[in-house]
Specification:
CATH class of the largest domain: Alpha Beta
Helix content: 40-55%
Distance between the termini: 84 Å
CATH superfamily of the largest domain: Response regulator
Order of helices and strands: HEHEHEHEEHEHEHEHHEHEHEHHE
Structural class: alpha/beta
Shape: elongated
Number of domains: 2
Radius of gyration: 24 Å
Length: 331
C-alpha cells in the first residue's frame, strides 16, 4: 500500500471511529420514548407544577409529541386507585415512571422492579421503604424527596402556635390511605408535647369525608388545624380552605397552592420550582443512567406563605414577626 492509500485508509478509519458515537446518538434521538406519569390528585390541581416539569424537559431537549409520549394516569384524589393505575403503566411498557408523592411512588414500586421510577416529594423515602439510602438509592427508584426529614411537620405546628399563641388544642387532618402519614404524625406529636398542645386526630380519605371530619373538629372545639401533606388534600384544597374558614379555624397547610386557594398559611417547599428537578432525572435515565446510581436530591429552601385576606376573614391578627419572616404575603 502506497503512502497515499495508507493515508486515505487512516483518514477513513478515523472518520468511521468518530461517526460511531454520532450514529448511536442519532439512533437514540430518533427513538420516541414513553413516560408514565402516575399522580394522586387531578391534573387541574397540579397543573402549575406539571408545566414546570414539562418546561424543564423541553429545555433538556425532550418535547412531548415529538421524541416523547407521556401516558398520564390521574387517581382523581383517590389513593386507593394508584395500584391499578401503576399496573396499567407497566402493561404499557413505559420507559420510565414519574411518581409524585410517596403514595404514587410506592404503588409504582409494587408494580415493577425493572422499569425506572423517578419519585417526586415523598416525605422520607428511606423510612417508608422506597430506597436504601439517599446517597445510594439502589434498585429502580431515584428522584427528589419532600424534605430532609419529617421535621418540617413539627415546624409547621410551631409556626401555627406562634400565629395563635392561645392555641392549646390543635386538630390534625390526615389521610389513613397515605403511608407517609405515620412519619408526619410522629414528628408532630413530639413537637406538640414540647409546646403543651393537645392533638385531635381526624381522618378523611377523600372529599366525601370532609364534612364529617370538620364536624368532629367542631365538637372538640379545636383552636386551630394542621392539614397533613398528601396529594388528596392538594387536589381538594379549595374545599378544605372553605371548610376551615366556615369553621373559623386558623389552618396550616403543606402546599403553597392551598394558601393561594384561600387557606391561611403554608410552610413548605415551592413545589412548582422544585418539581422541575425531576425532569433532570428523567433526562439522565433516558440517556442510559441507572436509577440506583443517581443520588436523591433534597430541597434546601422552604417558604412561608401567608394569606392576610384569610386572616381577616378568620378575625385574627398575624404577628408582625411572622409577616417579616414570610417569603410571600397574599393581600
Amino acid at each position: 500500500m502506497n503512502r497515499r492509500n495508507a493515508g486515505l485508509a487512516l483518514l477513513l478509519g478515523l472518520l468511521a471511529f468518530g461517526a460511531a458515537p454520532l450514529a448511536a446518538e442519532a439512533q437514540q434521538w430518533g427513538k420516541v420514548y414513553r413516560i408514565g406519569y402516575l399522580s394522586t390528585p387531578t391534573r387541574e390541581s397540579v397543573e402549575h407544577g406539571l408545566q414546570a416539569f414539562l418546561r424543564k424537559l423541553r429545555e433538556l431537549g425532550w418535547v412531548e409529541g415529538q421524541n416523547l409520549i407521556i401516558e398520564y394516569r390521574w387517581a382523581e384524589g383517590n389513593v386507593e386507585r394508584l395500584p391499578d393505575l401503576a399496573a396499567e403503566l407497566v402493561r404499557r411498557k413505559v420507559d420510565v415512571i414519574v411518581a409524585p408523592a410517596g403514595s404514587a411512588a410506592l404503588a409504582a414500586k409494587n408494580a415493577t422492579s425493572s422499569i425506572p421510577i423517578v419519585m417526586i416529594f415523598p416525605s422520607d423515602p428511606v423510612e417508608i421503604g422506597l430506597v436504601a439510602s439517599l446517597s445510594r438509592p439502589g434498585g429502580n427508584i431515584t428522584g427528589t424527596t419532600f424534605t430532609p426529614g419529617p421535621e418540617i411537620f413539627g415546624k409547621q405546628l410551631q409556626i401555627l402556635k406562634e400565629t395563635i399563641p392561645r392555641a392549646s388544642r390543635v386538630a390534625i387532618l390526615s389521610n389513613p390511605a397515605d403511608p407517609s402519614f405515620a412519619l408526619q404524625m410522629r414528628e408532630v406529636e413530639a413537637t406538640a408535647q414540647s409546646l403543651r398542645i393537645r392533638l385531635q386526630h381526624v381522618e378523611a380519605k377523600g372529599p366525601e369525608e370532609f364534612d364529617r371530619a370538620f364536624a368532629a373538629i367542631a365538637r372538640e372545639r379545636a383552636d386551630a388545624l394542621l392539614v397533613g401533606g398528601t396529594s388528596t388534600f392538594l387536589a381538594h384544597r379549595t374545599r378544605l380552605a372553605e371548610l376551615a374558614l366556615k369553621g373559623r379555624l386558623p389552618t396550616m397547610y403543606s402546599f403553597r397552592e392551598s394558601v393561594e386557594a384561600g387557606g391561611l398559611m403554608a410552610y413548605a417547599v415551592n413545589m412548582a420550582d422544585f418539581v422541575g428537578r425531576a425532569a433532570v432525572y428523567v433526562d439522565k435515565i433516558l440517556k442510559g443512567a441507572k436509577p440506583a446510581d443517581l443520588p436523591i436530591e433534597q430541597p434546601t429552601k422552604f417558604e412561608l406563605v401567608i394569606n392576610l385576606k384569610a386572616a381577616k376573614a378568620l378575625g385574627i391578627t398575624v404577628p408582625q414577626s411572622l409577616l417579616l419572616r414570610a417569603d410571600e404575603v397574599i393581600q
